[in-house]
Amino acid sequence: xxxxxxxxxxxxxACLLPPAGLGRSAARELFxxxxxxxxxxxxxxxxxxxxxxGTHKSSLRLSSGHSAPTLPQDSNQRRVRMSAHNPxxxxxxxxxxxxxxxxxxxxxxxxxxxxxxxxxxxxxxxGRRRETLKAMVPAWPFARLPLGGLMQKPHQxxxxxxxxxxxxxxxxxxxxxxxxxxxxxxxxTGQDFWNMWSGGxxxxxxxxxxxxxxxxxxxxxxxxTPLEVYIELCLKKKPLEKFLTYLFxxxxxxxxxxxxxxxxxxxxxxxKENMKEVLRMVKLDCVQKVKLSFTQKLSTLAQFAPLLGQMxxxxxxxxxxxxxxxxxxxxxxxxxxxxxxxxxxxxxxDLRMEAPSFLEGRLDQMLRCLKTPLDNISITNCLxxxxxxxxxxxxxKLCQLKGLNLSGVTLTDFSPELLQVLLEEVAGTLEELDLxxxxxxxxxxxxxxxxxxxxxxxxxxxxCGNLISMAxxxxxxxxxxxxxxxxxxLYPAPRESYSALGVLHLERLAQIKAELRVILTGLxxxxxxxxxxxxxxxxxxxxxxxxxxxxxxxxxEPNMHQLKDLDLSEVTMTDFSPEILHVLLE
Length: 586
Known about the structure:
Layout: H1 24-39, H2 41-50, H3 87-99, H4 102-107, H5 117-126, H6 130-136, E1 144-145, H7 156-170, E2 183-185, H8 191-198, H9 206-217, E3 227-235, H10 242-252, E4 258-267, H11 272-279, E5 289-292, H12 298-309, E6 316-320, H13 328-342, E7 350-354, H14 363-368, E8 376-380, H15 386-394, E9 403-405, H16 417-425, E10 432-434, H17 442-452, E11 460-462, H18 470-480, E12 488-490, H19 506-521, E13 529-531, E14 547-549, H20 578-585
Parallel strand pairs: 1-2, 2-3, 3-4, 4-5, 5-6, 6-7, 7-8, 8-9, 9-10, 10-11, 11-12
Antiparallel strand pairs: 13-14
Helix pairs in contact: 1-2, 1-3, 3-5, 5-6, 6-7, 7-10, 12-13, 15-16, 16-17, 17-18
């Protein structure tokens, strides 16, 4: 089956298509038989008897009186063998064939089984059949139409046809009997839906075709319930894409009957006026994840805060590179404005602050505004005071953390017991701990090692960029050996690998790696650890993993072996061992 990322052929082999003159009754009969072939073995036999599919030479014969041209025997074209045991492929081909006579396709919609709507809709999208798309939307027999999953890039013509179909639906006082449409989804999701109905899943059983239908029948939309349109927004300084501009104008004229929903929103930089103009069209209580990256002063974020407060269902909040002003009192007032709105986010579970220069000495204000316990907190690449870390360690809303990231926060001059207290509080829940470039010394690590060894759920531990001795690293390995789920470990090269001037000695490092292999081999369970080549590099450095210490037998990282997407753009790999990427790809 051709994947959805590829265009369907504009003209499949003629021997596989119903002729252009196929009448409406014959088209309906063809699709009815195809539907039966999709749903049962008996149906497949019915399909074979009703439309004798010939594998003789390269012809497809229709017993309904219509004949398709037969390729000459000496043709150089690849011969396509047809079989009733491959019904999804036949459905797509029949859909393309039916669209060659678009009026017949539209008139046949009323009689088509719902199982055939997705294949016909796909063919209409790829073939740019706007009239067919417009006619199919008011009769769509499913609760959701995941249009975004069919468009790698937004296509305004396709969108216009679908929105025209929604206008037809909205203009009717009583919705069509077959229509179950509640949501138009323009996000890049829904591929599983299209794969299932087009036969893209090799393991697709016939029963799976009926499950979504039964589900949708229980979700019949009431006549006055507004339709929902789902999108993802990334707002920048540059003008909006034509696709979004058209959509926003369409929604603005139909506010009473259309809800524009956005679960993930990213605001890189935008004027206050334009931002409010866009966001007033979005149902803000639908937003679940928002990233604010103004690269401006805290005062800009304070002006946005009232809109943030309306996003009452936000679960993840990311504040990136927000800097304070030169006037301390102004920062205090701006932070009060921000925290007063965060108080309204009662579902917040994930708080990340990247390089928040305004936070030094004020972390307690941010923590006091939390209404529910967090699952993850990330405070990176900024300065904190010992008072800040004290509030972090004793905050009651952080006692159930699954993820803690303090990378780039210097802890050198702080009491080593503070981190110990925090780890003791989250020992039963913590899964990921990132302490890269924190200035951690042997004294700090020794203090919190007992607490770290009790983090029974820990899966990921990263401590790159800290200067610790070989003896303490060995102690760390013994303590973490008691953690059964720990599968990804990143440690700095020991202090003994460097000269007095801070120069890394590769020969000495190789010797230390050999010693580590011996140590790890003697532990209770097979493990692998990673060591960066430059532990003192800047926090933004992506040079992570030039060396790896392997244990026999090596165990693949369980959370990575089913990756569908891998993006390493802008990661410098010049100085890396080529083995690293080879192992990952395996």
